[in-house]
Amino acid sequence: MDPSARSAQVFDQLADLYQSKYMDLDLYDESYALLAAPLPPHACVLDAACGPGTVARRLLAWRPDLQLLGVDLAPRMVELARAAVPAARFEVGDCRQLPGEDGRWDAIVCAFGLPYLDPTGAQAFVARAARLLAPGGLLYLSTQGGRPEDSGPQRSSRGDVVHVFFHAMEGPGSVGAWLAEAGLVLQSQAPLPCPANASVQTADWYCIARKP
């Protein structure tokens, strides 16, 4: 089983626990607000690796006009998201195969999905997201910080093991380089606080990039 599918399997088993730990987390609200504010009325938003609907619920609280679709590879996460955010649509789906035709989405969100994609998969995700964005569309990414060479199996406090990939923001082979190669322009980038109840403390960050 590939690492991403294995991670999805673990998250499917731990979905209810994950929801109880992170659903009401407001540490990242400022970054989500920066994404939501400039979107046009009734913007179409894709929430990739949506989990239990954490980001979707916050975006729709500020912008109830948004037309939001969330996809996640863990079926239990999708069940929880549907119950928590009935104003949005949620489907089981792999973020490595983003839905929609070119130019379909005004914004694509991938909040802490990158740590479960290897560099090849993460770069492919950025490239496909760029194609699917409408002109002027925004891509929001957040991820756990760390050195790429430190990527590998990580054990939670419950003993569950997933493979975590760390991606740099700058330099060759970095997220910043992938954004530029995909024709996206970086709008903002900043560190994020790590939740106090996270299994492993990391130096997290987010970025927002725009399609010209």
Walk me through this protein's architecture.
By secondary structure, this protein is α/β, with parallel strands linked by helices. The protein has a single domain, classed as Vaccinia Virus protein VP39 (Rossmann fold, 3-Layer(aba) Sandwich), CATH 3.40.50. 32% of the residues lie in helices and 26% in strands. The protein contains seven helices and nine strands. The protein has helices spanning 3-13, 15-22, 29-36, 54-62, 75-84, 119-132, 175-181; strands spanning 44-48, 67-72, 89-92, 105-111, 133-143, 152-155, 161-164, 185-192, 204-210. The strands form two sheets. The protein has a seven-stranded mixed beta sheet with strand order 3-2-1-4-5-9-8, with helices on both faces. Helix 4 (54-62) links the parallel strand 1 and strand 2. Helix 3 crosses helix 4 (54-62) and helix 6 (119-132) runs parallel beside helix 7 (175-181). The protein is globular and about 45 Å long. It starts with a helix and ends with a strand. The mean pLDDT is 93. Its EC number is 2.1.-.-. InterPro entries: Methyltransf_25, SAM-dependent_MTases_sf. Residues 45-137 form the Methyltransferase domain.
